[in-house]
Protein backbone atom coordinates (compact mmCIF):
# COMPACT_ATOMS: atom_id res chain seq x y z
CA UNK A 1 0.00 0.00 0.00
CA UNK A 2 2.71 2.52 0.98
CA UNK A 3 5.93 0.48 0.79
CA UNK A 4 6.87 1.75 4.25
CA UNK A 5 7.34 -0.60 7.16
CA UNK A 6 4.87 -0.52 10.05
CA UNK A 7 7.75 0.76 12.20
CA UNK A 8 8.34 3.72 9.85
CA UNK A 9 4.64 4.52 9.66
CA UNK A 10 4.42 4.52 13.46
CA UNK A 11 7.54 6.72 13.65
CA UNK A 12 6.10 9.19 11.13
CA UNK A 13 2.92 9.28 13.19
CA UNK A 14 4.88 9.74 16.44
CA UNK A 15 6.84 12.75 15.12
CA UNK A 16 3.74 14.32 13.57
CA UNK A 17 4.33 13.74 9.87
CA UNK A 18 1.16 11.65 9.69
CA UNK A 19 -1.73 12.85 11.81
CA UNK A 20 -5.26 11.88 12.77
CA UNK A 21 -5.07 8.32 11.50
CA UNK A 22 -8.34 6.49 12.14
CA UNK A 23 -8.32 3.12 13.91
CA UNK A 24 -10.74 0.25 13.72
CA UNK A 25 -12.32 -1.46 16.73
CA UNK A 26 -9.23 -3.65 17.20
CA UNK A 27 -6.83 -0.70 17.10
CA UNK A 28 -5.46 -1.26 13.60
CA UNK A 29 -4.73 1.89 11.65
CA UNK A 30 -7.14 2.62 8.81
CA UNK A 31 -5.49 4.85 6.21
CA UNK A 32 -7.75 6.84 3.93
CA UNK A 33 -6.92 7.50 0.28
CA UNK A 34 -5.89 10.99 1.36
CA UNK A 35 -3.56 9.54 4.03
CA UNK A 36 -1.98 7.23 1.47
CA UNK A 37 -1.48 10.07 -1.03
CA UNK A 38 0.21 12.12 1.74
CA UNK A 39 2.42 9.18 2.72
CA UNK A 40 3.49 8.72 -0.91
CA UNK A 41 4.37 12.42 -1.05
CA UNK A 42 6.43 12.07 2.14
CA UNK A 43 8.25 9.12 0.54
CA UNK A 44 9.07 11.29 -2.50
CA UNK A 45 10.44 14.02 -0.26
CA UNK A 46 12.56 11.52 1.66
CA UNK A 47 13.84 9.69 -1.43
CA UNK A 48 14.90 13.01 -2.95
CA UNK A 49 16.88 13.82 0.17
CA UNK A 50 14.71 16.22 2.12
CA UNK A 51 15.86 16.19 5.75
CA UNK A 52 13.32 14.99 8.31
CA UNK A 53 13.28 18.43 9.97
CA UNK A 54 12.25 20.06 6.68
CA UNK A 55 9.63 17.36 6.14
CA UNK A 56 8.27 18.09 9.62
CA UNK A 57 8.29 21.81 8.88
CA UNK A 58 6.32 21.20 5.67
CA UNK A 59 3.87 18.92 7.51
CA UNK A 60 3.35 21.52 10.24
CA UNK A 61 2.70 24.21 7.65
CA UNK A 62 0.23 21.92 5.90
CA UNK A 63 -1.64 21.41 9.18
CA UNK A 64 -1.90 25.17 9.65
CA UNK A 65 -3.98 25.47 6.49
CA UNK A 66 -4.22 27.79 3.52
CA UNK A 67 -2.50 30.71 5.23
CA UNK A 68 0.80 28.81 4.75
CA UNK A 69 0.53 28.10 1.03
CA UNK A 70 3.29 30.58 0.14
CA UNK A 71 5.62 29.15 2.79
CA UNK A 72 4.97 25.60 1.60
CA UNK A 73 5.64 26.59 -2.01
CA UNK A 74 8.89 28.30 -1.01
CA UNK A 75 10.01 25.27 0.99
CA UNK A 76 9.30 22.99 -2.00
CA UNK A 77 11.07 25.37 -4.39
CA UNK A 78 14.13 25.30 -2.14
CA UNK A 79 14.02 21.50 -2.09
CA UNK A 80 13.56 21.47 -5.86
CA UNK A 81 16.76 23.48 -6.24
CA UNK A 82 18.59 21.11 -3.87
CA UNK A 83 17.45 18.13 -5.95
CA UNK A 84 18.60 19.82 -9.18
CA UNK A 85 22.03 20.47 -7.63
CA UNK A 86 22.27 16.81 -6.59
CA UNK A 87 21.29 15.68 -10.08
CA UNK A 88 23.97 17.95 -11.54
CA UNK A 89 26.58 16.55 -9.16
CA UNK A 90 25.52 12.95 -9.82
CA UNK A 91 25.60 13.55 -13.57
CA UNK A 92 29.13 14.94 -13.36
CA UNK A 93 30.26 11.99 -11.27
CA UNK A 94 28.56 9.55 -13.62
CA UNK A 95 30.47 11.07 -16.56
CA UNK A 96 33.74 10.65 -14.69
CA UNK A 97 32.90 7.01 -14.01
CA UNK A 98 32.02 6.50 -17.68
CA UNK A 99 35.38 8.01 -18.66
CA UNK A 100 37.16 5.57 -16.35
CA UNK A 101 35.20 2.63 -17.82
CA UNK A 102 36.27 3.69 -21.31
CA UNK A 103 39.87 4.02 -20.09
CA UNK A 104 39.83 0.43 -18.83
CA UNK A 105 38.19 -0.83 -22.01
CA UNK A 106 41.01 0.78 -23.98
CA UNK A 107 43.58 -0.86 -21.71
CA UNK A 108 41.93 -4.25 -22.24
CA UNK A 109 42.03 -3.79 -25.99
CA UNK A 110 45.69 -2.75 -25.88
CA UNK A 111 46.60 -5.76 -23.73
CA UNK A 112 44.83 -8.11 -26.15
CA UNK A 113 46.78 -6.63 -29.04
CA UNK A 114 50.10 -7.33 -27.33
CA UNK A 115 49.26 -10.77 -25.91
Automatic annotation (TrEMBL):
Q: Which InterPro entries match?
A: DNA-bd_dom_put_sf (IPR009061), MerR-type_HTH_dom (IPR000551), MerR_fam (IPR047057)
- Name residues in a coiled coil: 73-107
One Pfam family linked to the record: MerR_1
Instruction: Write the record's keywords in alphabetical order, separated by commas.
Output: Coiled coil, DNA-binding
Q: Which PROSITE patterns match?
A: HTH_MERR_2
Q: Which domain of life is it from?
A: Bacteria
GO molecular function terms listed in the Swiss-Prot or TrEMBL record: DNA binding; DNA-binding transcription factor activity
Signal peptide interval: none
Family annotation (Gene3D superfamilies): 1.10.1660.10
* SMART domains (alphabetical): HTH_MERR
* Start and end residues of each HTH merR-type domain: 1-61
Kindly give the PANTHER family that the UniProt entry links to this protein. Answer: HTH-TYPE TRANSCRIPTIONAL REGULATOR ADHR, REDOX-CYCLING DRUG-SENSING TRANSCRIPTIONAL ACTIVATOR SOXR
Write down what this protein is called: DNA-binding transcriptional MerR regulator
Higher taxonomy: Bacteria, Bacillati, Bacillota, Bacilli, Bacillales
Amino acid sequence: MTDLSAHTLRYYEKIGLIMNVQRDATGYRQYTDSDIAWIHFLIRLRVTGMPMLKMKQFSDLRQEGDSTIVSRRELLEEHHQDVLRKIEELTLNLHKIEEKVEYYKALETTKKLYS
